[in-house]
Amino acid sequence: MDKVTKFCVNDKNTIKETISVIQGNFSRCVVVLNENKKVVGVFSEGDVLRTILQNIDLHTPLKKVISPSFLYLKEKNMSKAYELIKKYGITLIPVIDDSFNLKEVITIFDVMKHLEFINGK
């Protein structure tokens, strides 16, 4: 789960702490896990901007501001990932099991690499 770790934060992390993780992973968002390591949401740069515009303190824990609605896949499927990225403009897709345990993440870079591979470039 090494690759996945840099894309994850705990829902107790503050918005400010999360900004540092987002800045370091180059994916413009993170997967948010609760204390039981279950995926509870995704937090993006857009969410950061919305919290700032709403004058929410940057020391607020994510659990108070994340939306419980997020896009995910149940299996690593690059075609489905491409469709989600194209349709919704997202850059990171969590792959979860039926209990919302994070199995892996698919980044926009993973999808681009896959497209280059299947197109023979």
Automatic annotation (TrEMBL):
<dbReference type="InterPro" id="IPR046342">
    <property type="entry name" value="CBS_dom_sf"/>
</dbReference>
<keyword id="KW-0129">CBS domain</keyword>
<dbReference type="Pfam" id="PF00571">
    <property type="entry name" value="CBS"/>
</dbReference>
<feature type="domain" description="CBS">
    <location>
        <begin position="1"/>
        <end position="58"/>
    </location>
</feature>
<dbReference type="InterPro" id="IPR000644">
    <property type="entry name" value="CBS_dom"/>
</dbReference>
<protein>
    <submittedName>
        <fullName>CBS domain pair, putative</fullName>
    </submittedName>
</protein>
<dbReference type="InterPro" id="IPR051257">
    <property type="entry name" value="Diverse_CBS-Domain"/>
</dbReference>
